[in-house]
Amino acid sequence: MTEAIQKSLRESAAARWTALGILSFTMFAGYLFTEIISPMKPIIERVYGWDGSDFGMFFSAYGWFNVFFLALIFVGILLDKFGIRFSTLASVLTMIAGAFLKYLAFSMDFGGSTIAGFDTQLLLASIGYALFGVGVEYAGITVSKSIVKWFRGKEIALAMGMQVAIARLGSFVPLAFGAAIATALSVPTAVLFGVLFLIIGFFGFIIYNIMDRKLEKQDKDASDGLEEEDKFKLTDLKVIISNRGFWLIAILCVLFYSAVFPFYKYGPDLMVNKFGVSDKWSGLIPSIVPFGTIFLTPFFGSIYDKKGKGASIMILGAVMLILVHFIYYLPALTSVTLAFVNAIILGIAFSLVPSAMWPSVPKIIPEKQIGSAYAFIFWIQNFGLWGIPLLIGVVLEKTNPGVAVKIQEIMSNLRAQNLSDDQIDEQVKALKEAGQYPIYNYETTWMIFVGLTILALIVAFMLKAEDKKKGYGLELPNIADKS
Fold first, then answer.
1. What is the distance of C-alpha 393 from the center of its chain?
2. In whole angstroms, what is the distance from residue 190 CA to residue 388 CA?
């Protein structure tokens, strides 16, 4: 009877899927805020006067604290030492603090002032985004460990796929509608919506913690309820960093996500400058990518649970990524329909790799070290999330000299005529149709994405070879054989 009581909460499908739903909503809010600015590049260029390098600095700020202050390493240790409940609240409060600072940066008038040579607004927005980046990555690590806790030996890949799908819905919403909201209301108002969702997520984590406490009482083997001799120790980090399979997954992660997440930042601008999409709906085609994962990531995760083939799934996803970015690179291909179809393929690829990659980590690393393992992976991933957007911004500006200055000159002339925002938008549209509005050429810049995807394919093959050598079971199903 005692054993039945202890296992009842985890064995209850309703309980574990309810816990997953609560965790997933907060990640939805985190991903929503992550991309809240992404489709607004043309709008912010006109309203605030930012150039390509400014956007490169801002987007790369996401990884400042995570990479250079080793924040993700520390939060992973905090997670393994103090547990899931502490980490859920600490992570979401960090997200809210950084998000609110970012909101203040866009809502206040700094009069063109500078701090240490940097525009005050840009610096404040970047620091807020950097702090938020710590919180959302901390939350992602915590949620990943929570799913392992609730779903090990069960539908773990499907559960991780569902969580990713709901989180990607958070990316879809601002990409599809963020620019329209900012146009109709304002940039600060759009950012404030994201802050409010994070606050709702905070209350969701409180509810989850009540469930987690009940589970801990019923299951003494839960990750944050181990006997003292089995608890995480700092010396356990050697197990992680000495594992070749772990490093291959970590490198694959940074390459894969560096080939997708920066697309959210610069894809909308690519649609405007290469494919002629209007500023207002520039994020609509890129939004197809996270929207497609809503359905496909759980589907591919379920296949991995039942049939296995995790390493092979990652290889297939990498191949599709190469195809997608090469098509976006080719200068002669400017069809909006092609851009739309290509985004669908990118969404499929973006469903394949995470559905197999994240559930594979527990096959390589013991559960008591899983928090730190995910933290290491997220830390390495953040090198890409910091460096690639910055590199893209610099390369874009260097290969398009004077474009940002010309845009600012045009906007200054239009504002000097005391036109309304709607009238300015009409004038800009007319200039674009007449070929008198400067555009960015992304040809050289997009070669960065092509190179990343080729490297990802090479690492995916290396991971499959390592699995065959060490017998991690990446090609085997995740659901335990009940017999």
1. 18
2. 26
pLDDT at residue 5 greater than cutoff 50: no
The strand pairing partners of 118, in sequence order, are 115
177 three-state secondary structure: helix
Tokens describing residue 291? 């929207």
d(CA 25, CA 83): 20
pTM: 0.74
CB contact set of 252 (below 8 Å; sequence gap of 6+): 314, 318, 353, 357, 456, 459, 460, 463
DSSP assignment letter at 119:
E
Which pair of tokens denotes residue 67?
A: 């990479």
- What are the φ and ψ backbone dihedral angles of 50, each rounded to 5 degrees? -70, 150
β-strand 114-115 against 118-119: which pairing, if any?
antiparallel
CA torsion 15-19-24-25 (nearest 10°) is: 100
Locus of tokens 């796929």: 161
Q: What is the mean pLDDT of residues 213-229?
A: 60
Structural domains of the chain sorted by starting position, each given as residue range(s) with its CATH number in brackets: 9-219+229-400+440-470 (1.20.1250.20)
Report d(CA 472, CA 408) in Å as an integer.
56
What's the full length of the chain, in residues? 483
Nearest 5°: phi and psi at 165?
A: -65, -45
Between CA 352 and CA 350 the distance in angstroms is 6
